[in-house]
Amino acid sequence: MSKRDYYEVLGVEKGAGAEEIKKAFRKAARQYHPDVNKAADAEEKFKEAKEAYDVLSDDQKRAQYDRFGHVDPNQGMGGGGFNGADFGGGFGDIFDMFFGGGGGQRRNPNAPQRGNDLQYTMTVEFKEAVFGKEMDITIPRTENCETCRGTGAKPGTKPETCSTCKGTGQQEVIQNTAFGRIVNRRVCSACNGQGTIVKEKCGDCHGAGKLKKQRKIHVKIPAGVDDGAQLRVTGEGESGTKGGPSGDLYIVIRVKPHDFFEREGDDIYCEIPLTFAQAALGDEIEIPTLTEKVKLKIPSGTQTGTFFRLKGKGVPRLRGYGQGDQHVKVVIVTPTNLNEEQKELLRQFSGGTNGELMHDKQQSIFERMKKAFLGE
Asked: Is the pTM of the predicted complex or chain greater than 0.70?
């Protein structure tokens, strides 16, 4: 199945800026996050949006995508040319095949090799992402066997150099053809390219040199982290081989939606209902923030959809000082179940001015359009 265009996935134009792409991804993430949307295809759409954002938010990856489109791993870049990895052994094998060897440097099977990186997805509460948190997580990973120290050999013994490939990890297959002598190098079948053979295997890892283990790691989530952020824990990936360093652990943060607050960057948004009387006459009301309740003065004549800003009541800035702001949108609630006396008072107040009522209706429609546009 062919992939959809990344710009189409996020619903942006090809020339969209970084902020527009970021906003489009956040909108899609809120819509398809598995914790919110239980539809059968929600998770796949969430992954599709994340993949599109990962490419389009990176200048180098985006330039490559704009030029070549989706890369087919079986054809190389853009369906043409080739990728050196497609030939297994790399360019050296091409030279060996046609010119009899000497094609380039090869990896030493006995050289230290870095361990693989790992990825762990962590779901946190809204306020945990805002204020940060310390916690322990348990991850499965492969570690060097402590009994044999990663050699795979029984204690008191050590791996022996492979007699078939003489420690190179490769075998030469020579063919005489009408075009001349062709030398082709392949992975040694005796040692599987390791260059060494373990004759007396370790009883714990059975010669593998590694074991699957559950590792507990203490993690500090910084205050202000947002949905989709990645935290790198150096050296907590899988163990290296031949004395090589361990890989890294990448923790992907997923933030649960909040029932009252919505986040946009370092700012947060919320809606507060007002009665008609409060909006018309003015009032002082209590507003919940991330840490406390504060007083907000509502001027007389306030219209529905008006925003008020509470400076410094948003999210702590992840890189820098200070905090974002809290934006409060007031929504006037239409009264229901009025008695006849109340209805008559409203009729007297309106004075039959249908024009003003129509204006209010238009304002309401405008606010709904604005809300949909902002992805609130």
From this structure: no
At a CB cut-off of 8 Å and minimum separation 6, what does 161 contact?
167, 195, 196, 197
In 3-state terms, what secondary structure has residue 96? helix
If we measure between CA atoms, which residue out of 268, 269, 267, 266 comes closest to residue 225?
266
Hey, what are 226's tokens? 């947002």
Q: What digits encode the pLDDT tens for the residues 38-80?
A: 788 888 888 888 899 989 998 888 888 887 777 543 443 333 3
How many degrees, rounded to 5, is the angle at CA 239 between CA 236 and CA 240? 125
Q: DSSP class of residue 254?
A: E
Token pair in block for residue 187:
């992975």
Q: In sequence order, which residues have a C-beta less than 8 Å from that of residue 36 and are 6 or more positions away?
A: 30, 257
Rounded to whole angstroms, the Cα distance separating 216 from 221 reads 16
Compute the distance between CA of residue 253 and CA of residue 233 in angstroms, rounded to an integer. Answer: 13
Tell me how far CA of residue 215 lies from CA of 35, 138, 220, 296, in angstroms: 26, 5, 16, 49
Q: CA 66, CA 60: separation in Å to the nearest integer?
A: 10
